[in-house]
Amino acid sequence: MSVQIELLAKHRLGEILGRVPLVADIYAKIGWSPRMNFFFGAYQSFKMAADAARKYKPVGWDNAEIAHNVVDRPHIAPGAARPLAADSFQPCHYAATFWLSKIIDGSSRIVDLGGGGGTSYEIFEAYCGLPSGAAWQVVDEPAMVALGRARHAALGSRAIRFEDHIDPAETCDVLLISGCIQYLEDPLGEQTPGAGVIEAFAERPRHVLINKVPLRDGSDIWTLQNLGPTATPYRVFSQDDLLCYFESRGYRLKDSWVVAEIGVEIPFHPKYSISTMSGLLFERTPEPAAA
Question: Domains in the chain, start-ordered, CATH in brackets?
């Protein structure tokens, strides 16, 4: 199946086949719908993608089965031997962990948006050790939060907590968004000005680290990702628009890296398919000195 998907997603033949009446709908029902993490369709907005998804599956991440799939995984214990192919550790985590080790200290508050069951926290603890006094908060869907709390209560984790929303009075030093921003309906505040991910906080975080984000030249596009029991709209960002959002809010791009192990293959839409993702670290620029 992977060869056929690559053909449909990366070659003009796939685009031509997608124009044949009923072909895309038949593929959605027998090729996409049964297969987790496969992509389907190209849409101009979150709403259009969500409306299309409802023809095949319920929509959204807040699902007990999905939460168990994400949270119930082997624990990465500090100092323990780890398998070469640990399913919770991807090569792109090295870049993120490296930069987190540089920007986190004993006074840091980290908000891990879409952090699931605390995977990034466990990786950081295992490889670097969270400095004493630092606090790590995961924000995710209620089903994920419930399982994450139970998991880390059993593990005896010392500095992580879970919430299903960001308090308007919340502040943090590091905003971590790993493999999550593409699922948010309006993360750049385009539909509701002043309601982007930065504006969710009472003060701008000093650093924003975004990992596993799909970027493309040109305009944004929305597709659908199959999550198994549900499906979700999934955004491939315009690189210029994403960078502009952070730069216009007083951030500079400090570093970027290629996430070579993950891509987005959208059958019948080769011009929107991407072979790699990206990682980005933004740093808040200093406020101008008072005259």
Answer: 2-74+91-284 (3.40.50.150)
